[in-house]
Specification:
This protein is α/β, with parallel strands linked by helices. It has a single domain (2-343), classed as Aldolase class I (TIM Barrel, Alpha-Beta Barrel), CATH 3.20.20. Helices cover 36% and strands 16% of the residues. It is built from 11 helices and 13 strands. Strand 9, helix 7 and strand 10 (234-237) form a beta-alpha-beta unit. Helix 5 (146-157) packs parallel to helix 6 (182-198), helix 7 (217-229) packs across helix 8 and helix 9 (293-301) packs across helix 11 (320-334). The protein is globular, with a radius of gyration of 19 Å. The model has no long low-confidence stretch (mean pLDDT 96).
């Protein structure tokens, strides 16, 4: 069935990228997604107190509105991160805003946090079954108090998600990346920590910060220190990039965040920088340009305890997660590891 699903995914390339995505979500909601077999138990891992059935996760952006996390977990992902969700529903930026760069195996998006808002998102999470599901939270474009939006999301979704990711690194909401500066981050994480500590203890779960790959060394060190000071569990490295390496596609000049294969080297390098700065004090999740078992393994050896992917699915289909899991397990065994956690940071 996986081959058939992969062929269908390629057929969707005949559609506009955003229409193809909506068709994919509709099909998954109808139960048309693949079903994965059990993976090698050496891929099971614990991060920040969360027990993952395998270390390969689905990055946010695919399931913005928490509609199909169940089917995606059944397709083989060890965890699914939904969102980005904002307190109020918003339409996002004008279309077209999503572009396939097929010759480059890349995607450019300037979606702008389009989503149905907290009410719809939380209603679906409240009905969820088993499996690890994270909530990626953001701020509305027109918010007068953006930090207040993050606090509202945390409070509203408390007890519904297995972890939270604070997304301050999308390039498609003007000014959002300014929250990565030390003073703004101190304010954001301080207010989030204050709200977290006031909420019921039984809803306490890890909070991660999602960062951009377009950061300098001093910014990386500041983010690490502020995150530790405010009790974050870890960092997700990284979001899309505003940089433009050499690209062949006719869409290469489109504005927005670039993801997919051209991001691989940059995201790998930034993960190494964050791993060095964190020195074991934060859990790291690697994301950006991962499309093979070799790339997932490289990210783990560079310091990631788990990985996430999304853009590679656009070009390789839903069977990719199974291929990566099998290849990753084989590479771990070939190097003498008996568990994925043993390989973290070994490069």
């Amino acid at each position: 069935m996986t081959l058939a699903h992969d062929l269908i995914a390629r057929g969707l390339h005949l559609l506009d990228p955003e229409d193809a995505h909506r068709a994919t979500i509709a099909g998954l909601a109808m139960g048309l997604g693949p079903r994965a077999v059990a993976y090698d138990p050496m891929l099971n891992t614990d991060i920040a107190g969360i027990s993952l059935p395998n270390c390969i996760g689905l990055a946010p952006g695919f399931d913005k509105n928490a509609e199909v996390f169940g089917p995606m977990l059944r397709s083989g992902f060890g965890f699914v991160e939904c969102g980005t969700v904002t307190p109020l529903a918003q339409a996002g930026n004008p279309r077209p805003r999503l572009f396939r760069l097929t010759p480059d195996q890349a995607v450019i998006n300037r979606m702008g946090f389009n989503n149905e808002g907290l009410e719809a998102f939380s209603a679906r999470l409240a009905r969820r079954g088993p499996g690890i599901v994270g909530a990626n939270i953001g701020a509305n474009k027109e918010a007068t108090d953006r930090i207040g939006d993050y606090v509202s999301c945390l409070e509203h979704l408390w007890g519904m998600a297995d972890y939270f990711t604070v997304n301050i690194s999308s390039p498609n909401t003007p000014g959002l990346r300014g929250l990565q500066t030390r003073a703004a981050l101190e304010d954001l994480l301080g207010r989030l920590a204050e709200k977290r500590d006031s909420l019921p203890a039984q809803g306490r779960v890890p909070v991660f910060l999602k960062v951009a790959p377009d950061l300098e060394r001093d910014e990386i060190e500041a983010i690490v220190e502020v995150s530790i000071a405010h009790g974050l569990a870890g960092l997700i490295v990284s979001n899309t990039t505003l940089s433009r390496p050499a690209l062949r596609s006719a869409f290469s000049g489109e504005s927005g965040g670039l993801s997919g294969a051209p991001l691989t080297d940059l995201a790998q390098a930034k993960l190494k920088d964050f791993y060095a700065a964190a020195a074991g004090r934060l859990v790291l999740i690697g994301v950006g340009g991962i499309g093979s078992g070799a790339q997932a393994y490289a990210r783990i050896r560079a310091g990631a305890s788990a990985v996430q992917l999304y853009s590679a699915l656009v070009f390789q289909g839903p069977g990719l997660v199974i291929k990566i899991a099998r290849d990753l397990a084989a590479r771990l065994k070939a190097d003498g590891f008996t568990h994925v956690a043993q390989a973290v940071g070994t490069s």
